[in-house]
Amino acid sequence: MPRIRAAVIGGGGNGEHDVSLASAAAVADALDPSRYEVVRLTIGRDGSWPGGLAGAVTLLQGCDVALPIVHGPRGEDGTLAALLDLAGVPYVGSGLRAGALAMDKWVTKLIAEEVGVRTAPGRLLTARTAGGYAWSGPVVVKPVAAGSSLGVALVGAPDDLPGALAEALRHDDRVLVERVVEGREVDVAVLDGPGGRIVSPALEIVADGFFDYAAKYGGGTTFLVPARLDPAAGKALEAAAGAMFDALGCRGVARVDFFLTADGPVLNEVNTMPGFTEHSQVPRMFAATGMSYPDLLDRLISDTLA
């Protein structure tokens, strides 16, 4: 039986370049060489493709499937999916629409409210409107379209707000300011395709302080999976994760992040291309169901080619 020619795309021209490289390398190494011929493609920090864009598209068109393991803007936001669609290359994961909607935290928030998933009270600000924001208590400041908590700050005092807004505006021209939610940080992953839907056990993030970029990738954070939840909380998280997956039009796998409060789950964000090393949250969650990392990748590829 001929091997499947699988292109694994990593890197990218954004602040998540190194995180993407780690995910892409792990994915490429985990694919069974008896089943897959792996073609590795790395997008440079400046957004350039090896051999130029035209040459990369030609190479991709010679593959059976692509795994676009590129986090953040100009990757996870649907732009890479659009390129693969135009090139006629089947690919793992969400398409242009879902990627663009999920990357935009403000639009995700509006959609969540329409389908009955709670979000934190918040406001959308720009460089023009940021100066008029009236302090009303501790907030989280975040760029609308960035990942890996880049530019995100927990602001507990009004004097710290201008600096946090300025930093967030370095990463995006729109900023979301949300009221701090007191609750446990809990993630749920949804895997969906022709093979059926699997909602993972919940994973709880236990961080020493704010779960920012340094906490995510610098160690010192504990992941508890499955999270210790009562049955009602587990069902509420599963329902909310499924509702967001469907409302955004996700495909393949997505990670849906929540704060679990006494009144139920509050949506934080949706990741259509989450971190994907073997030790990242999504593979850990599915490992708790008995699905190994290579098996998860096999499932994603087989669903794409079905």
UniProtKB/TrEMBL annotation:
Cofactor(s) in the UniProt record: Mn(2+); Mg(2+)
Classification via InterPro entries: ATP-grasp, ATP_grasp_subdomain_1, D-Ala_lig_Van_CS, D_ala_D_ala, Dala_Dala_lig_C, Dala_Dala_lig_N, PreATP-grasp_dom_sf
EC number, UniProt record: 6.3.2.4
Sequence ranges assigned to domain ATP-grasp in this UniProt record: 109-302
Residues annotated to bind Mg(2+) 2: E269, N271
Cytoplasm is among the record's keywords: yes
A Gene Ontology cellular-component term: cytosol
Enzyme class: ligase
Domain of life: Bacteria
Cofactor, how bound (note): Binds 2 magnesium or manganese ions per subunit.
GO biological process, any: peptidoglycan biosynthetic process
Entry annotation: catalytic residues: E16, S148, S280
Pfam family, one: Dala_Dala_lig_C
Family: Belongs to the D-alanine--D-alanine ligase family.
Role of this protein: Cell wall formation.
UniProt protein name: D-alanine--D-alanine ligase
Gene: ddl
